[in-house]
Model the fold of this input.
Amino acid sequence: MKPVPQSADQILNLLIGGEAGQGLVTVGQLLAKALVRAGYAIVVTQSYQSRIRGGHNTYTIRTSPGEVQAPQETVDLLVALNAETVDLHRSELAPAGVIVAGDKFGPADPNCLKVPYSQLARVKFANVVALGAVAALLGLDLELVSRAVADFFGKKDAALLEQNRQALQAAYAWAGTQKVAFPKLAPIKDPVPRLMMGASDAMALGALSAGVKFYSFYPMTPATAIGQFLAGAARRMGLIVEQGEDEIGVLNMALGAAFAGAPAMVGTSGGGFALMVEAVSLAGMTETPVVIALGQRPAPATGLPTRTEQADLSFVLHAGHGEFPRAIFAPGTIAQCFHLTRRAFALTEKYQTPVFILFDQFLADSYRAVASFEVEKLEPIQVGADPAAVAVPYKRYAITDNGVSPRLLPGQSAHLVVADSDEHTEDGHLTEDLKVRKLMVEKRLRKSAGILQEVVAPELVGDEKPELLLVCWGSMRGSALEAAALLRAKGKRVATLHFSQVWPLRAEQFLGILQQAGEVVMVESNAFGQMAQLIRRETGFEIKRKVLRYDGLPQTPEQIVRELSS
Done:
């Protein structure tokens, strides 16, 4: 069991709100980057509507000198780029909260810093003026913030960079003369260098470290950013990134690339994956390795395309006609996004079956401060078998004790590689011999035993012999951990059990933990309690009490505690 995280540090929650097109994401990213460089931890939560301009969007940064792992409901600093933001979020302010708003729409409140945007800079630099005012209130070093601005604008236009710097400096100086009281962040001496990174970037880096050579996708929130990152790295890293005409073609292209020997990955969301299901079954029959990253969002149909949910677990678990093995990962941290993506490539190559990575919009758009990944000691992932070790005539689907057949790459040796999407003989030719059919089904399913032995065990954190155990998976990890801390502060013995791999399940890794806890509660973001259903199906253990959320917003520690208190 991992020890309980301890943190008595100052924690601030900053919400930046405005319309799409006002530059609030730019402000948020620059501020978050400056905070990370100054040594603070962050959790970013983005809320945006499915439109290019207009609509109400927010960029929230929770920050602390110590550890933070989840979003927070109350707001300490409300940065309003328009009047609507004040109207919508003023009720969320903490008792000592401060509003930063324009002098033309800011409320008459002693805790409101009314910024004279038009006096400090031209209107196009209003977002950078807001950044300067907020940086001064937080006590961030001006030069550090200025470097973040330079990194963002410097390569684009030197004149534009200078104008942004001037706006930043003017706002910072002006805010320093104001009387609004706000607790400055405690400075961190000699901060440890960390990266500001989101889940999409981490998954892309994990794929690169695994040797990905082909990535195909059709743009679909929240998975698009993986393809954008890889496209930017494609020339340097020697891979092909293909935006397909539709999701049907996307996975079939990836299977073709993988068959030829290029480690392949696709990214999509639930609606796009629905079109890929036939190709998933093709991967199972042809025993072709492929990694599928699926970003969950509210459904059915288009649903809420820019919000978050965890409702695709059952879909992914059963996708594809017929029976064949698979593995499903569900990272809960940025580091897990990197390492589990890499693990997915190793597993799909070893067992020649599709492997999935389930994430969601909240995690995809949530930046964190992370330590650099140690990549020097990572072992390369071997693609295909050694032709010299394979007997002639080559049997692509040779029946073996573990179900894994030697996979040779076509055109890379004198061996003839034959594959078939119909049922086939060991050498890859179509057959309707029913005895062979039975043997081939059993061969493919024997791979499940090997996959089962490599399952990542769930992470147990908290008190020994807890009276309350919070069970969660994927992105719910941080909120469950912080909810446990809140309950622990009230005198309860609490632990959390987080699944970062949700299929297959090994009962011996966690069933005893469930049975020994006083009360077990499942925390997940869907209406059915899909993970609770899966645990009951596989182990017989019923988690009767559930904290479920399915309104499109992420679970928060406060909400979990409220649900448990009701």
The chain has a mean pLDDT of 95. The two ends are 29 Å apart (CA to CA). DSSP finds 19 helices and 20 strands in the chain.
